[in-house]
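Encode chain A's predicted structure.
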Amino acid sequence: QSSPTSFMGHKSKSTPYGVVAKPMAPVLFALANGVSFVARGYSARPNELSELIARGIRHPGFSFIHVQSPCAEFFNTYDYYDQRVDDLPPDWDRHNLKAALEMALTEEKVYLGVFYEEERPVYSRAARQFEPEPKQFDLTEYLQRFS
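Encoded structure for chain A:
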């Protein structure tokens, strides 16, 4: 069946005449919604994909990783993606939101890698300033209550 990310013209049992809507762009969607770690991986490159996932897990804050994973059972698109995927340029500035948005709009290639990464305050760290200072605890004094 087709999905919101299926390319135009994709035929399936649910769309026998082909998809007529422009596909959703998950990377662009994440960037436009302020996600602080945005990447794309490809299931045919499991080593690179596992590294991306690990980076996303280590990132403090909201991480989004779009994984291109063709369906080999009903509509084998591995050849289609193998011809179109490419790594982001080696000198890619993953801190440049405008460049990331422009790259996410590219339709000629399916770029892989970290599109955008920004270190931001996260709640778990910021909330520490509101925690009360620990009080001194005298175990001997506490135990005397039971004697």
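The two ends are 73 Å apart (CA to CA).
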